[in-house]
Amino acid sequence: GENVEQHPSTLSVQEGDSAVIKCTYSDSASNYFPWYKQELGKRPQLIIDIRSNVGEKKDQRIAVTLNKTAKHFSLHITETQPEDSAVYFCAALFLYGGATNKLIFGTGTLLAVQP
Amino acid sequence: DAGVIQSPRHEVTEMGQEVTLRCKPISGHDYLFWYRQTMMRGLELLIYFNNNVPIDDSGMPEDRFSAKMPNASFSTLKIQPSEPRDSAVYFCASSQQNRGLLAFFGQGTRLTVV
To answer: How many angstroms separate the CA atoms of B2 and B94, rounded?
Structure first.
């Protein structure tokens, strides 16, 4: 079935350290993997995404890596800052053809950056 | 563009009452999703539409839940009758097929059923 697992559920780091969040997915056909950041009381917002024809993508302090063989992808945040504190969700696009493709989310990681 | 607009932002209702949540997707987006977020279950996909047509409603928890999309700019999620376990934040999101289902979320409706 459709499944996206995300670890850890909570992560506490010191300001300036790196944070890594990992996700695995069940459908080998999945080809699109976005990451969302949700601050307390706000909506999830896309921060970075990666497609299966790419192994790594960077955007300033944020990077995402993808291992299609192992069916896992990871979010890396370097030089963390207190404003990085939020819940992060990974997601994977499950392909059933045409209009029936479905975006399934992981269960989220609460990241706390300690000043 | 104002983004995805949901109303109301907060809803408190008594058990047994009907609740209707509303969503206006981003203009031009051909997909609309309804998600439910709770601490225990995270973000759950309830139902989604493509070009106003329901594609997959397998995430709708019970027959008490129903969703409609009468036109490209409006959708409703209805719970009748509501129960305390329906308390959650309900998000609507929209996207375009040609952008790989990149989803933009509304601000959510926080529903409390007492």
So the answer is: 13
**With an 8 Å Cβ cutoff, is B70 touching chain A?**
no
A 61-90 → B contacts, CB under 8 A: 89
B38 touches chain A (CB under 8 A): no
CB of A47 within 8 Å of a chain B CB? The answer is no
The DSSP output letter for B22 is E
Greatest C-alpha distance within chain A: 47
In degrees, rounded to 5, the angle at the alpha carbon of residue A21 between the alpha carbons of residues A74 and B88 is: 115
Confidence of residue A3 (pLDDT cuts 50, 70, 90): confident
**Distance from chain centroid for Cα A18:** 15
Confidence check: pLDDT of A53 > 90: no
* Cβ–Cβ < 8 Å for B34, B79: no
Distance between alpha carbon B13 and the CA centroid of its chain, in Å? 17
Tokens 């609740």, located at residue? B19
For A87, name the nearest residue in chain B, comparing CA atoms only: B42
DSSP A15-71: TTS-EEEEEEES-TT--EEEEEEE-TTS--EEEEEEETT-SEEEETTEEEEEETTTT
